[in-house]
Batch of 2 targets.
Target 1
Amino acid sequence: MGLFPDVFTEIAVLLLFAAFVGAIGVRLRQPLIVAFIAVGIMVGPSMLGWVTADDQIDLLAQFGIALLLFVVGLKLDLHIIKTMGPVALATGLGQVAFTSIIGYLIAVAFGMPSVTALYVAVALTFSSTIIIVKLLSDKREVDTLHGRIALGFLIVQDLVVVLVMIGLNAMRAAEDVSVPVATLTVLLKGAVFLLFVAAAMRYVLPKLTHMLSQSQELLVLFGIAWGLALAALGVTLGFSKEVGAFIAGVSLASTPYRDALGARLTSLRDFLLLFFFIDLGAHLDLGMLGAQLLESAVFSIFVLVGNPLIVLIIMGALGYRSRTGFLAGLTVAQISEFSLILGALGLSLGHISAETMGLITLVGLITISASTYMIIYSHQLYDVLAPWLRLFERSKTHREMSMQELPDDALPQALLFGLGRYGFGIARSLRERGWRVLTVDINPDLTRNGDPAGYPVLFGDAEDPEFSATLPLERMQWVISTAREKRTNLSLLHSLRQQGYRGRTAITAQFDNDVAELEQAGADIVLSPFSDAAYEAAERITEADLT
């Protein structure tokens, strides 16, 4: 009999312990994946030895993996790949190829067998879409140019993951028959599977989801059932539950209800994935991890430095500025939960040993932890490394529009950073008063399509000192920033001062206690959207009452 009287109590204690350790991880600004793997190590046989309900935890872990792939498929946005054009495919495939080849050579140099080296190399190529989207969302950089590009090549990576899993299952089938026969069998089964799903997408799912949408609970239940059913069908056909669940998500991605489904399933997915990482950590041998410190350090440095570097080189060759390439490249400076899932699949197939799985996991712990800080402080890192990073930038960065490319009649009296609702409202009001206003935004869609009134929008980042150097500041009367982040506005004011700007500035403050600091930094006017709107609303109400 174990430490706990029953499975229910054991799992309840594990959840409470995971919440406690997770809170510490959040406090340290670490992804919960790291905290949950640490929980698994602590409650596993190497330390506390609490875990005895292996079968139940494994079942919940498998549900979590299936839902993870289902949600990834559900949110597969091919529009991002289309709008980003060659850069998403070039960086995605280029980084995968570079990391796989160099990673394989490093693994072979450490004396690993070919199959083991191949698994390790492929595991190093995948980056965590979940972690990156979370970090970019927290920094409000999802809609920036580097954020869009990063999402584009992360989607390419997700597609490569699915192809690798299909290939692994073909290898498993080839153990009983010849490789050509196994490959042909897998292709035929895959074609039948895809035809079935395509027919469902065309004739069944649109009407069915519309009918079920009358009840949100029923729609979510169907989404889970559909994802797990196709995951089970994938296993039956000789693929894997991951492939089946991913295709199930893709099949619902074109429906109007994908966002509602994704939002409601995210919490359930994260909850069930907790058991995967606990199960993974519980099966790690600390002694085994300690014996691979040199290998894990080398592979971690390779991922942390090599992956961003290859993205920077590819984007520089395509005509992007070094800053954009660097910020996008940092998003691949870690391995992902898919790497761990891939390793677990290889372990179950007998292709790799528990020692290799421990190595992959240790590299994951190191790179996920380190890259989190690299992404959080990405702008500060670029400021330090900028002189060396410019070596990877072409003399003419034609992918990013510059002020010199604007027609003479578009040169502005005022330059306005940030084309949100507040920024567009200011730009429209100034233009109605006869001002020539050029807006600047970091959203590439606005750069390409123009603002809502049809005026051109310049791509640029208020926090980028190099961008300020390209502006004809001597011709401008005003520089206006509607960015809410104090750091961004202070950086803009500093850059303007460095460039000798003599015009006036209007800077937005998100909080009242930021006003004095912005004025001290040189802002002529500090805009307070909420206070200003409240004052204007009160004035209008008062005027209406008097009439």
Target 2
Amino acid sequence: MLERLWQLTELQFRPDEQHHHETLFTIGNGYLGTRGAFEEGYPGETPATLVHGIYNHAPDTLVPELVNAPNWLVLKIWVDGTPFGIVQSTENHMRPPQGVIFGYERTLDMRRALLRREALFRAQSGAIVRVQFERFASLADVHVMAQRVRVTAVEGNPTIEVESVIDADVSNQGVRHWRSDATTIADGDTTGVEVTTAQSNYVLGMASRLLCDGAVESIDDERRPASRTRFSLSREQTATLTKLTTVYTSRDVPNSPLEAARAKLDEATELGWDLLFSAHEAEWAEYWDTADIQISGDDEVQRALRFTTYHYLIAAPRFDERVSIGAKTLSGLGYKGHVFWDTELFIVPPLVLSQPQLARNLLMYRYHNLPGARNKARANGYEGAMYPWESTDTGEETTPQWSDPGADGTRIRIWTGDNEQHISTDIAYAVWLYWRWTGDDEFLRRYGAEIILDTAVFWGSRVEKAGDRYEISQQIGPDEYHENVDNSVFVNRMVVWHLETALWLVDYLHQHAPDDARRLVDTLDLTPDRLTHWRDVADKMYIPFDEERQIHVQFPGFFDLEYVPVPDYTPRTTSLHAILGHHRIAQTQVIKQADVVMLMALLGDELGPREVLLNNWHTYYPRTDHGSSLSPAVHAWVAAWLGLTDVAYEMLYHAVHIDLHDNKGNVGQGIHAAACGCVWQAVVFGFCGLQIENGELKTQPNLPKHWTEVSFRVYYQGQLREFTVRNPEAVPLSQ
């Protein structure tokens, strides 16, 4: 095993890239995520620890957001009185000259989910030390985080001071979510805080302990309790210190999260770093056993693919079925931690095949939030369940209606919460995919069927009769550059799929689970008239199609808009939306992201003959801006499936590096979760051609010409299956 293909390494500190790298070097365990900020801090840093489900709606803000928890990372070090740090503040000009960093290296070991950092530092006294940091968020016990620091005297006999802090004086980029009346503990080597969100009343308790050989004193502070130790080193001597931190919230325990955190801290202390890490490493080995894809012939894509897989795995809740993965995972404050369709169509599928229990947890989040979806349907005059475009802990719609003011003070109306209604079908599709691959009949009977059927009830009430056909007006499809269109082909065709699936499901339940069938028929009012209406809608839905060109039309009138040759706008590092402006781009044929191509990815050959699908591709691919991170991976998937291997690889290379290369320029706000999940699908479903055919799995590979083979493992109907697809005519990349 080549360890370098499991590692992401930074060899030089660049202050202007640190927000990007804070995101890349996030650690997490499905309960929380902690950005890769430094223990000692630096000017302009954006540290954040985000815990699933802890939302708050602050005054004077439009919507609730995921709350930045107290910062457990803080470990400050002084060498002969000189503060260790990569970047030192110069605001106090009376301060004497600071130390010097001679070398720096940071590595994320994705196989073990361990972050390491090392620096060679010279103090003002002339003493030189090597400082090594390590940290992990335990996958074996999600309430435990661990840090270890080693200080080695390279030159001189320095005196070292180390201060361990829990910093509860935190905000979401200036927005305060925690009440000011925090409870703190400072008791020798142990510190703790308990804080409460101001509006939602979630309580969080966090406790830390500094373990070392010397004496430890405490520093009491109402927001930043600390423990401090002091010792001296002889030349070539190394001191090792361990900081253990535990966290609980009122979502986990009914009373006193701080007491629970202190009890867990005692357990973790008994185990110590080595045993804690061994258990953590073993859990990650099980994750990678099924989640990893091995590519031979392309080391760069191999490492990048592991990076994307790592990031959706660290965000996937292990034991909690009332939370879900936001569009920026737990790695940043982007999109305020809200949950979109990204989860169901882009992240759930790879988890269904590699970690089905994690996928089930995410779908159960939607089941538990059916009341919110029903509330939204009612509020808009419809029946059934209409899922929100953006969701948090309550299941209610949390999409803001207006954007933040731009540079010129203007605000843009956000229509997605009103009219991007395809999310209800996206969720039903994910439920269906989960059941097809897992055969989890109990989930389907008790939970999944209700989601599929009640969202079908919504669509049955939402469609509009227009003469001898049905239409759907005022929709936003995946292409969000074109808002409030009538008869989006993506929406209309997926609604047909949805209603046909719901009708099949009613018959299936009557045959195989009659008690559940009766329960759902009664609860959801699935009368014979309603089912007849569904059949009529499915048969007579308007599907925009150009018979002459043999293509699906994104929406009627699309080709009457201004044609803009997207390929001519190169090179560029920004979207055409930013170049042309919000109002003009809506009058063009420029597509934000895969729309008809997304429909092809979901329905495959069900959508039409291969000739039509190729016509669709050649029509829409050159019109697509890829203004969303979701788009390149979908195009890679579909192009590979269609046998367009060269362009498929180009799109995959783009997709798998979106975060690593910061192609969108906003990775500092968090990882692009959907892109991470979709590149896995692009490789497995696209390049390897994995599919279910007549109840059996088969592959139909179209590998890039330089890939020699691809190996992966998936669960199907409860059994773990292993696949290796080969390219006997592979041509290695030139060195």
